[in-house]
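hey can u check if this looks right to u? its 98 residues, i copy pasted from the old doc so theres a chance i mangled smth
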Amino acid sequence: MIAHHVLFWLKADITEEQKAAFRASLQTLEDIEVVKTFHIGTPAPIERAVVDTTYTFSLILIFEDLAAHDVYQVHPLHKAFLDEFKQYFENVIIYDAH
């Protein structure tokens, strides 16, 4: 199993409509056949020194194995998402774990 956790910090000048379009496009990634588990989130209202709530969106994908992860990376839906929305990112951090 591979857990792919992506944290997105969107640029400060992104509108609410652009955020909604970004989230809708993230949702399309669930349709990629190798995705076993899918979750989009925003920071939970938890105030602890060790909890980072500065990101805009969190995306968690679970894959069966590294081969499935690799299929996802080159999938047309993933590439379309990146092509359309990468200019919205201020920062992105990815944590992959097995």
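The chain has a mean pLDDT of 96.
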